[in-house]
Amino acid sequence: MGERVIAGQVRGPQPAARRRRRHRLLAGLLVLAVLGPLAVLWALRAGLDRMLFPPVELYGTVNAQETWLVPGSEGDGSALMLRRFGVPVLGCVVFFPGQKGGVADYVAALFPPLLARGAAVFAVSYPGQDGAPGQPRLREQPRMAAQAIEEVMQHCAPLPTVVLGRSLGAMPAAYGAALARPAALVLEGAPASLSDAVRTRLASRWWSAPLAGLPVSALLPEDPSLAEALSRAEELPVVIFQGSRDDVTPLESLLRAGLPQRVKVRVVEGATHSSTWQQAGDALFDAVMAPLQPIEKPAPPAREALNGARPRTRPGS
After folding, report:
1. Full domain range(s) for residue 41
2. CA–CA separation, 6 vs 233, rounded Å?
3. pLDDT digits 0-9 by tens, 296-305
4. Which of 98, 118, 137, 148 is exposed most, by the fewest CB atoms within 10 A?
């Protein structure tokens, strides 16, 4: 059909038919070029929670002294999980991991120096990760994070509590700390904003890399940022450790984020996103433990100095 037989030869479609087919093909490609990225962006927006905090099975050995749940408000059983490791001698640390959880890895490598220094560590697991029930919901994270911190503060009182957040976990750690007001907040490998984290995630996959150039912040329902979170707690001491070679949460993005002046950014030279806390070493652990150290009161001065009087001397001496 569409062919003509002349003198035993088969001739293809006429030029006009070929042009129509070409136009239809180009129109289809144009529609796909326009609607394709929009469809991908819609899918990403709908699945943003799971993209940023994907399901992770619990692996390895995790021997916590105590475990409890901080429920969400959706009524579907989703909850943060808190696990306690160690006994609070000087105070407590609430730890928010990155987007892929992995509490067993931190139990083996990150927690021992803190436990040895006299802190009890309360590890957070996000819904759907490391045994915590349910599904992640970004809009609920600030409230659930604040509730988790408050419960640890009550458990640890009268000893102080410090919040430690790593990578994407810096976001719930910062917003939760702004509401709960612990003794201090220490972050490591922190993204400047949620849109920065999404953009980096898109750029890491070949099929979504072209979308990283779009205005991601305009496509998100909300775009929480460290600057916004930390501006809500004016007196909260904050220290951020950031690697100079971090290409996941770049140092340059953090320095341009408009953080409050009181925030101390400590650059770990040569460190990548995965190696910052190891290369920071004692400096990171000391920053976490500093607010937990007891304050020694100075000895009262001698009475003569207190009263401003000169020491008495005996006559003739």
Report:
1. 4-46
2. 86
3. 655 565 544 4
4. 118
